[in-house]
Amino acid sequence: MPNYSIENLRVVLLTGPYGHNKSRETLAFCAQGRTVSMVEVTLGNGVTGLGEGYLGVFAPTLFAELVQFLQSRLLGKAADDVGARVREMRQACDYWGIQGPMRHAIAAIEIALVDACAKTRGVPAYVWLGGARTEALPLYGSGGDATTPDAMLADIEAVAELEIDVFKMRVSGGNGDVERTIWTLERGADRGIRVAADMSQNLGQPPQTAADALDYVTAVHAGTAHRLAFLEEAVGPFDLEGFRALRAAAATRIAGGETITSAEEMNQRIAAGVYDIAQPDASVMGLGSVAEVCAAARAHGCTAAVHAWGGPVGLMANYHIAFAAGGRLAEVPLLHYGLRDRMYVEPLQIKRGHLTPPLAPGFGVALDAGIEREFPFDPRAVYRTPGTLPPEDMTAWSARTSQPDRVQ
After folding, report:
1. DSSP 203
2. Whole-prediction pTM value?
């Protein structure tokens, strides 16, 4: 019998260059690079597993402290009883950590345990989690925070090359962004691609109202024959009535939930009709919780679409649980992040806009000393909120009939 005893936990913080100088996210929030916060678990059989918590984008040193708090409660216990280990971790801190940052740390450890167990058996993680419920997972391309038309067109071309038919852009909802959205809707339509909009109001200081978001949608739809595929995080995370109001009034589907840290809260929102599209993230709430959300979404006619905007382990964990739990849609990031490519054991297999089930054992990610030397942790590289964008020439988006040169 394999020795599944948990022998060691190690926090791994890495930072890598991210995005480009025409990306709003890069310029405003993470110009120093992007940090990932990971946990490496070592079993008694010598196999290691990797997990990731999204918290490292914002507070990597806090993530390290939270994992250290949990470490002594896990050593010597069986990694293959993942459910029991998750319950024990939650019981140790639910008095003060029933939601929020601690759930990110628990999620990272849960992911690492599954990775190590699946590697021990020599199977992909979704197989260890019960098998794939779908043969191919539909994807939408996520980026669209370009400050110039040529950079936006490059994102659209990347989506078209993958034969993905939905492209998500980021907007704030101001008058300039109305023109920017119309421009993108029309350029996407030229290539058979629908466009969604992420308003990122979970970062709003303060967030806009449902009336503000509705004004944006109305202005966009008045300016073009094309319609938004969906509208994401259009109001603040606590404005449940605002989400419901948009579902009733906006001529598009309403998405949200990436910041929710428990299945209980997400499922209450789904049952209450808050979202058309619920967006759980395994690196935020954990694998088991995402599976619960997928089940609740099916029961209430809601689409479960995993949020996948983290590092390599977080992305692969979300894809694997989407396969295992019957997720209906997944995000694929377009902004370049070399650390992801370095840690993938095999490239993502995307065919006709769908991700096919990975074949590598575990989550298909690997870490070695060379990667750790190449991407050392930079404590300056944290996501700064609220961010400040440099001035943009928004008039560049108003020439709707002019077509920039096609990206080669």
Report:
1. G
2. 0.96
